[in-house]
Every structure is written in structure tokens, then in C-alpha cells.
Design brief:
Layout (H helix, E strand, L loop, with lengths): L14 H6 L1 E5 L14 H4 L6 H10 L21 H11 L3 E7 L25 H11 L3 E6 L23 H4 L18 H18 L3 E4 L8 H14 L6 E4 L10 E3 L13 E6 L17 H13 L2 E6 L10 H17 L7 E8 L11 H10 L15 E6 L2 E6 L7 E4 L15 E3 L8 E3 L4 E4 L10 E5 L1
Parallel strand pairs: 1-2, 1-8, 2-3, 3-4, 4-5, 5-6, 6-7, 7-8
Antiparallel strand pairs: 9-10, 10-11, 11-16, 12-15, 13-16, 14-15
Keywords: Glycosidase, Hydrolase, Signal
Protein name: alpha-L-fucosidase
Enzyme class: hydrolase
Length: 475
């Protein structure tokens, strides 16, 4: 193709995405069968010296006898119910959602003509993406397709020369044999034309068949040749005319003005002028898929994270991984329902809001955080993801959002002395206008307040309307 002009693809982020604030996605694939440590099992089982390799050989046998392809028939998905997934997403308060469309393992979760290794020909024998998209739309939820398949370049290359990935008969499952160094984050040998073409055609097929409202690309998309990345974006936005569609990307994999910047497990210390997204996991283990002994973050932790992100002009895309049979752990369901209960009462301060002049107040310092190249390279070397620092917010911490002339001050706890004190809204502070009234979402009566040069003091109601965080509505 001729000169690449990314400027032709510049676009405003659609209002629906800016208003949505909260989304869900679901890591589900053959890696959900061993459910050991994390979703990188498909790669790490082939890397001698890593725990997953040792576990695999001890549990399933040598790599030339039992390879990743042999998990396919074990992923039966007998409890997969796309309607239940959609109802869970709606109950949780998510406004956009979707399954991982293809992870790094060449297993497409849709009815694909481009890739015979897909969820209709193998595993559950179901069009997972298609069924989920239909179910989500019936619940009024925008749809999301997530792509991680650029990682396939070198993903399966093994330290064991006898591994099944090197058998030419298995190329359809794993791709052609490549030098072992191609499994690095930025390899010396970039993907060849055939790989880039297939990468693009998989995305084309999903766009054509399902028209997702948002397309998420995981990191390492930068190794795909630029003309193929451009052609994909051009096809989505202009050829197919997805004017309300949006691409999300990581690092510097796409130019900033053509999509939404995503920071994995990330946060900003201050509001950003541009809409952004953080994708993170409900799982409190360092995994994005179901594992043998799952544990989950608390509802309060997720709610505080959501409020912090939204106050800074971001969206939270939260992951939860189902079992290999397609069902969810009851603890995960219960936590998501608690998040949904909070949003059903307090969503006015979240959905369709915009940042206030100041995003945050309080003693807890939140620093910029991103799962960057350094952390990715550490994960590749050690086989497990690095943990990401997370602050604990207190009752003295507030997050601010706005809708029109209304200011929402979200308190991250209940004041011990029965009075909220908000310095940001003091007389002579950033809020120059008169404050006419204060109420708490979920509480029927107006609240008593006093405003002076020190702070806005608001008397808490006698009863708490909810738990985790409390929204003061200021008019």
C-alpha cells in the first residue's frame, strides 16, 4: 500500500464509551482446563525450568505425548450459558462486555473460516463470541472483542526439541516452528507477511460477523507490520463504517488519536484530558483465568478502584475467568453482585459523568502505574506476572465527578465523628459557586452543611444507605 496516513483515522471517542465507565471481559480458553497458576500456561508449559512446565510433565506427561492441543477436548463448556453471562454483566453494572476473542494460543473463540482451530470445531463446539454478543445486546450491553493473538508469534516455541510444537503435523495448532528467541516481547525476527495477514484477517472476520462496539488489543501489537495495523483500523472505522466503534490499545502500539489508551492494571495520579481505560482483574491471585484455588478482590476494593479511575476520566474494564465448563465461581458472582448493588444506588455519580477540576482529596497518595514493557519482560522471564501496587483508600479520601452543574463527592469510608469534611469545596477554593444543597444518594433527606474557608462540613445521615463508599450530591 502507499503512504500510511494515520491522521485520516483520527476520531473522537464515542459518547457511549465515555459514559459507560465500567466493562467486563472473560478469559476463557483451553488454558482454563489445567487452571494452574495463570493463563500463560499454554506458553510456560513448554519452557523448561518454569513451574508450569514441571507441573505439566508430572500431571499430564511429556510434551511430545501431551501437548496444549490435547486440552481442547477437555474444555467441554457444558455449563456455558451466554444468557447467564449477560445477566451477570448487567447485574454487575457493566455497560460493555465480551469474552476474550482469541488469546495468545491460536484458539479462536468464534466460528472462524480463517482459523480452523476454533471453539466450533474443538472444545465446547460453540460460537462463543457470537452467542455472547447476541446475549449481551439483548440485555442492552455494548459488545467488546479482545485480541491477544499477536503474541502467537513465538508463543509455543519450546526448550524441549521433542515437544509436539515442532512436529510439522501440528503446525495447524501452533503455527510454524520459529527460532526460540521469537518468544521475547520484542524479538529480533518480527512476524513475516503470512503471520501479519492472518492476524489482520482474524480481526476482519470478527468485525464482519459480529460488529463489536469496541475492539481491545493487548500489548505487543507493535510487532505487527504497520500497514497491517493501519489496514485493520481503516477497515473497522471507514470501510465498515463503525462510526460508534472504538479501538483500545496499549503502550505505543497505535497513534494516540485513533483510539483509547489502555493501561493494564494501571492508574493515573491526576485526571487526564483524554478518555482512557484500565483493564484489571477481579482475581486476587496474579492470574486472568480460573485457577485451582481462586481468590478474589473485595467488592469495596473494586468500587474504590472504579471511583478513582472514573474521577480521572477513565473506564475500568474488569476481568473474571470462568471454569473450563463455562460457569463462574460463586464467590466471583457474589462480589460482582455487590458491585452492581452499589452502582444501582450510586451510579448517578459514575455513569455519564465527567471529571471535576480536582479529582481527589485525602491523605492516600496514588501514583501513576502501568504494566509496562519492563514488567512484561519480567513476566516472560519468570513465567508469572509481576504484582502491581494498590493503595488502600480511607474515609478521609474523596473522589469527585460532575454531571452538568452537579458535583459528586464520593467518600471512601464513613466518618468516625459523623461529619464529612471536604477541603476541596471550601469557600475560596476551586469551587467558586454557591452551594445550595447537599444530599446523599440513597438517603431521602437533605443534609445539614456548613461552608467556611477551611472546608465544606456535611453532617452524615443517621443511617448508612450502603457500604464501601458514600456519594454526596452537591447542587
Amino acid at each position: 500500500m502507499g503512504q500510511i496516513n494515520w491522521d485520516e483515522l483520527k476520531k473522537e471517542v464515542p459518547e457511549w464509551f465515555r459514559d459507560a465507565k465500567f466493562g467486563l471481559f472473560f478469559h476463557w480458553g483451553p488454558y482454563s482446563v489445567p487452571a494452574y497458576q495463570n493463563e500463560w500456561y499454554s506458553r510456560n508449559m513448554y519452557c523448561g525450568g518454569l513451574e508450569q512446565n514441571k507441573y505439566h510433565v508430572e500431571t499430564y506427561g511429556e510434551l511430545h505425548d501431551f501437548g496444549y492441543k490435547d486440552f481442547y477436548p477437555m474444555m467441554k463448556g457444558e455449563k456455558f450459558d451466554p444468557g447467564e453471562w449477560a445477566r451477570l454483566a448487567k447485574r454487575a453494572g457493566a455497560r460493555y462486555a465480551g469474552p476474550v476473542t482469541e488469546h495468545c494460543d491460536n484458539f479462536s473463540m468464534w466460528d472462524s473460516s480463517v482459523n480452523p482451530i476454533n471453539s466450533v470445531n474443538y472444545g465446547p463446539k460453540r460460537d462463543v463470541v457470537g452467542e455472547c454478543m447476541e446475549a449481551f445486546r439483548k440485555e442492552g450491553i455494548r459488545t467488546l472483542a479482545t485480541f491477544h493473538h499477536q503474541w502467537l508469534w513465538g508463543w509455543f516455541m519450546s526448550t524441549d526439541n521433542e515437544a509436539d510444537v515442532y512436529n510439522p503435523a501440528n503446525e495447524v495448532y501452533y503455527g510454524p516452528a520459529l527460532p526460540l528467541e521469537t518468544n521475547r516481547y520484542i524479538p529480533y525476527r518480527y512476524p513475516d507477511e503470512a503471520f501479519c495477514r492472518t492476524w489482520r484477517d482474524k480481526v476482519y472476520e470478527v468485525i464482519d460477523k459480529y460488529e463489536p462496539d469496541a475492539i481491545y488489543f493487548d500489548s505487543r501489537t507493535c510487532i505487527i507490520r504497520e500497514d497491517y495495523r493501519y489496514a485493520m483500523a481503516d477497515y473497522y472505522y471507514r470501510v465498515r463504517g463503525m462510526k460508534e466503534g472504538i479501538i483500545t490499545y496499549k503502550q505505543e502500539d497505535f497513534p494516540g488519536d485513533i483510539g483509547v489508551y489502555d493501561i493494564e492494571c494501571g492508574k493515573f495520579s491526576r485526571p487526564r484530558s483524554f478518555p482512557w481505560q484500565s483493564d484489571d482483574r477481579l482475581e486476587d491471585n496474579i492470574t486472568w483465568c480460573m485457577v485451582q484455588n481462586p481468590k478474589y478482590k473485595s467488592a469495596g476494593r473494586i468500587i474504590h478502584q472504579l471511583c478513582d479511575i472514573v474521577s480521572k476520566n477513565g473506564n475500568l474494564l474488569l476481568n473474571v475467568g470462568p471454569y473450563a465448563d463455562g460457569s463462574f465461581h460463586p464467590d466471583a458472582v457474589a462480589i460482582l453482585e455487590k458491585v452492581g448493588d452499589w452502582l444501582s444506588l450510586n451510579g448517578e455519580a459514575v455513569y455519564a459523568t465527567r471529571p471535576y477540576t480536582i479529582a481527589a482529596e485525602g491523605p492516600t497518595i496514588v501514583e501513576d502505574e502501568n504494566y509496562d514493557k519492563t514488567k512484561i519482560e519480567e513476566q516472560i522471564k519468570k513465567g508469572g506476572a509481576a504484582d502491581v501496587h494498590s493503595e488502600t483508600l480511607t474515609a478521609e479520601d474523596f473522589r469527585f465527578t460532575t454531571h452538568g452543574d452537579t458535583i459528586y463527592a464520593i467518600a471512601m469510608g464513613w466518618p468516625e465523628k459523623g461529619e464529612f469534611q471536604i477541603r476541596t469545596l471550601r469557600e475560596g477554593g476551586p469551587c467558586q459557586r454557591e452551594i445550595k444543597g447537599v444530599s446523599m444518594l440513597g438517603s431521602s433527606r437533605p443534609l445539614e452543611f456548613k461552608r467556611n474557608s477551611d472546608s465544606l462540613k456535611v453532617k452524615a445521615p443517621a443511617n448508612r444507605p450502603c457500604t464501601y463508599a458514600y456519594v454526596l450530591k452537591i447542587v
